[in-house]
Design goal:
By secondary structure, this protein is an all-alpha fold. Helix content is 54%, strand content 3%. The protein has 25 helices and four strands. A hairpin with a 2-residue loop joins strand 3 and strand 4. The chain starts with 19 loop residues before the first helix and ends in a 19-residue tail after the last helix.
């Protein structure tokens, strides 16, 4: 007799599979974000919808802040200098107001929009920088620095309310224990003379490595006795620990994102920009004090060029020729200075002294006109040609080959050749050259360039600070060759009442 199998019975040899989506979202772990506080531990991922434009722009704005924070660290700025440097940049790219700034408090639409952008941008960059251990470590370090900066500047009442909302499992030290270890607690807490003047908490010593390293806590049986005044260090350690754990979890989920061809290119672009953040620059109507440059004035202006462009100009004058990509990089830089097409054609014809007019018109004239958008397809003409390449593009695209001189000397030169080139341009300070060597060894090429700029313009920068002119955009890290030139020209003409030449962006220009 054939036994009828119960259809409701699960075969013992087969696993009871449940749709992974139903299993994943059976008990939702997310909730609507209300943003009651200015500070955020970023534990709950965002769930609302945003546009792709917001996705990319919010991430870029936050990346600019993180890059500037990292640059402040590399350039050994003090905490006070860092706070002063970052204040206008935070207000420009990532503002975050306190509840007391509005009569409606956290319900104010402006405050909510600011906190939403902060929340989403953090998780977008968390996706972008979870791919490798190096990116995770760097992201965690600069995010912790940003949190510290905000924590220190937060409203006292809001900050305390935020800390209380975290529900840390900190064990308070009782009066009896305080009396038992009173002498040791006072000895390990600078500035405290009486037990009644301070309270302590007990936590595992691994949670406050910074305090242990600086010997600012009493240790006993694996516990650190932390004074209330060191609350920030405890919170920062907790923030870092949770962020590191979140980054590890995110890295495991990254393979699932490969299926979304909309997000992957954006995330890859963001992670590449963590080496040197990308930026845009296009020529303005009159970026050079004293009027637009001419073919005859380029030699005099070259003293204000960054090293990459000075090298191209010098090679052009010595050899009366540049290869294709070298010409393109230099042409677009001169275009960004405001050099007109007619003057650019004159400049290149006068520079190529070893060829005839016919050869120039046949082999080189069209390329210059194409870069300016004077010829080519409709898109090229409408976009007025290519925009000047940023440091990030110069670093990552079209490495120079034999006989080529384009690229970035800080990356593409050997250390000895780079130091020799810097010395030929007047940089002889040992500390500066030593710092440049350290920067290029750690692949901080844009920091090396900024270090050279700071040394070459040290006196001018000091005068600008004394006059109160070294503010806002002037304090930002240089990420574009044309920005280098603009700052150098501003410092030169500052005594003449000159203003910072305007950076004028045109969204219709094509990227190189």
């Amino acid at each position: 007799m054939i036994r009828t199998q119960n259809q409701n019975r699960i075969d013992s040899k087969r696993r009871a599979e449940i749709d992974y989506k139903k299993r994943q979202f059976a008990n939702p772990s997310f909730k609507q974000n209300d943003y009651p506080f200015r500070l955020n531990f970023y534990e709950i991922p965002p769930t609302a919808e945003i546009t792709l434009e917001q996705f990319e722009q919010w991430a870029i704005d936050r990346l600019k802040i993180l890059a500037e924070l990292e640059a402040c660290s590399f350039r050994n700025k003090s905490p006070q200098e860092t706070a002063s440097h970052m204040a206008p940049l935070l207000q420009k790219y990532l503002p975050l107001s306190s509840n007391t700034s509005s009569s409606h408090g956290a319900r104010d639409s402006r405050i909510r929009a600011e906190r939403q952008k902060d929340h989403y941008s953090h998780f977008i960059l968390r996706l972008a920088f979870s791919g490798t251990e190096d990116l995770r470590r760097r992201f965690s370090r600069v995010e912790a620095a940003l949190f510290r900066l905000r924590f220190q500047n937060d409203d006292t009442r809001e900050r305390q309310a935020f800390v209380e909302s975290l529900n840390f499992d900190w064990e308070a030290v009782g009066d009896e224990e305080k009396r038992e270890f009173g002498e040791k607690l006072i000895a390990s807490t600078p500035g405290v003379r009486r037990l009644e003047d301070e309270n302590w908490f007990k936590v595992d010593w691994e949670r406050v490595p910074e305090l242990v390293e600086n010997r600012r806590v009493f240790l006993r049986q694996g516990k650190a006795y932390v004074p209330m005044r060191e609350q920030m260090s405890m919170i920062l350690a907790e923030f870092t620990q949770r962020l590191d754990k979140g980054l590890q979890l995110t890295s495991r989920a990254l393979p699932r994102l490969d299926e979304d061809d909309r997000l992957t290119p954006i995330l890859n672009h963001l992670s590449n920009n963590f080496t040197t953040p990308d930026t845009t620059f296009t020529e303005s109507e009159n970026p050079t004090p004293g009027g637009a440059p001419t073919a005859q004035s380029i030699d005099a202006l070259s003293q204000h060029f960054p090293l990459c462009m000075r090298h191209l100009h010098r090679h052009l004058r010595e050899n009366s020729h540049l290869k294709h990509y070298s010409r393109l990089q230099y042409t677009l830089f001169l275009k960004g200075l405001g050099l007109s097409l007619d003057q650019a054609l004159i400049f290149w014809r006068q520079s190529f002294t070893k060829i005839t007019d016919d050869v120039f018109n046949k082999e080189y004239r069209y390329n210059v006109r194409h870069a300016y958008g004077d010829v080519g397809g409709d898109a090229n003409r409408r976009g007025r040609g290519y925009s000047p390449p940023s440091c990030q593009k110069i670093l990552t695209e079209r490495a120079p080959g034999p006989g080529e001189t384009h690229g970035c000397p800080y990356r593409h030169f050997s250390p000895d050749n780079l130091i020799s080139l810097l010395q030929q341009t007047g940089i002889h300070d040992r500390d500066t050259l030593k710092g440049v060597r350290e920067d290029i060894e750690k692949k901080r090429y844009h920091i090396a360039c900024n270090r050279v700029f700071d040394y070459a313009h040290a006196d001018d920068i000091r005068r600008a600070k004394d006059k109160g002119n070294w503010e806002g955009e002037m304090k930002e890290t240089i990420l574009h060759p044309n920005s280098y030139f603009r700052k150098s020209m501003f410092l030169k003409h500052m005594g003449d009442g000159g203003q910072m030449p305007p950076a004028h962006s045109r969204g219709d220009e094509m990227e190189m």
